[in-house]
Amino acid sequence: MKPSELKEGDYNPYYKTYVDKLGDSDLLPTLEKQLKNFPNFLASIPEEKLKYAYAPGKWTVLEALQHIIDTERVFQYRALRFSRNDRTPLQGFDQDDFVPESNANNKSIDAIIEEYKTVRASTVALFKSFDDSVLKRIGTASNSPMSVGAIGCITCGHQRHHRDIIRERYL
Fold it and tell me: How far apart are CA 136 and CA 117, in angstroms?
């Protein structure tokens, strides 16, 4: 699936920025490519920058990285539920509540990398199990419709979004 195959109503317009980050890349190869490349990016971050926040009240690099992982877990769960035709509306989550509870600043970059690789490998395995009809299934999350395919695209775009922010504002 490519982002261009998503239709209006497949996701809340809030997520358009993330979907647009993919251009016209295929979803599954992008998930796999990020699994190979993102850990290298993480390992290249200087140790002295890991607990750095570019402004008061902003997350540290470690917190931003943990946020990427946590968000992927939440979105993976949504994809699983919607792929199984579960029609139960799912509540949203507040990233600003998650981050302080994540204990990210007490983790090593190696632990973050290992956790990312584990979560992403699980996401890849899940999305490999979906055919086109499953990718088009829609559920409700945060009071908005969301297709399984859109969840995958948003997951990839969300990671790119935060990688770009880390490059621009932290490094």
Answer: 26
